[in-house]
Amino acid sequence: MEACLSRRALTFLIIATLGMAGNCAGAAPKKGGNASQGVGPARWEETIRKFEAADAEKAPAKGGVLLVGGSNARRWVDAATYFPNHAVLNRGFGGAKMEDVLHYTDRIVLPYAPKVILLNAGGNDLSSGKSPEQIRETARAFITKVHAALPETRIIVISLPPVRRAAETPGGLDGLRAMNKLLGSLATPDKKVEFVDLFPAFLDEKGQHRAELFVEDGTHFSPRGYETLAGLLRAKL
């Protein structure tokens, strides 16, 4: 009973911590944005169809590095320039949740047969009320689905970052660390699944949120933030 209450308390804390971030990153855009009408993954159908139309016009090369996830992935529009020795394809969309990425795996992941997948999702699931354990299991389902079709593909799971809202909420960073520990548990000894923890690089020597690595909202990465992330990923690629 105590463990159950502890998990509930952790989930509540993280939701409260990420509530502002979820409102600005996870909510479906208004008319004219990149989300379709509907609920759940269906709200991204229009965006996914645009990806498919672009692929039909010019098919991306297979065997590259695929970046997929929510708004921090989507906003990294020049990701390819950070990795000149790799063919990088960005398929980040909207404020996608981990469950959205899983839902569209057959359409915007598997067709590219990537050698490496950079998975950047989970924060929007938390802010919508999913428990850390549910998010870990959704990520596990994504990994299982990918490896069933592409057993040699490496998957790099990127942790949730220490966003400003968490840093300003008592216990907020500890809540995110607990979530990241669950995601990190998915890493495998053969390195087919690896985990990149953003906390050491995105906090200063006093353990404080590094504002210069984020834009004004304290949630999305600044150019310096993306450069820092790229440095961590280069070590894996």
Structure description:
Residues 1-27 form the signal peptide. It comes from Brevifollis gellanilyticus. Keywords: Signal. Residues 75-227 form the SGNH hydrolase-type esterase domain. This protein is an alpha/beta fold and 237 residues long. The protein has a single domain (2-234), classed as Rossmann fold (3-Layer(aba) Sandwich). It is built from twelve helices and five strands. The protein has a five-stranded parallel β-sheet. Helix 1 (2-25) crosses helix 10 and helix 8 (132-149) packs parallel to helix 10 (172-184). The model is unreliable at 1-6 and 19-33 (pLDDT under 50).
| Unreliable parts | 1-6, 19-33
The CATH superfamily bears the name SGNH hydrolase
Could you say which overall geometry the principal axes of the C-alpha atoms support? globular
Fraction of residues in β-strands = 5-15%
What order do the SSEs take from the amino end to the carboxyl end, as H and E? HHEHHEHHEHHEHHEHH
Compute the gyration radius: what is it? 17 Å
What name does CATH use for the topology? Rossmann fold
Helix/strand/pairing category? alpha/beta
Q: What's the CATH architecture name?
A: 3-Layer(aba) Sandwich
Placed side by side, the strands forming the largest sheet appear as 2-1-3-4-5
**How many structural domains does the protein architecture include?**
1
CATH class wording: Alpha Beta
Count helical runs: 12
Share in helix: 40-55%
The counted number of beta strands is 5
How far is the first residue's CA from the last residue's CA? 43 Å
Mean pLDDT, to the nearest integer, reads 88
Largest sheet: 5 strands, parallel
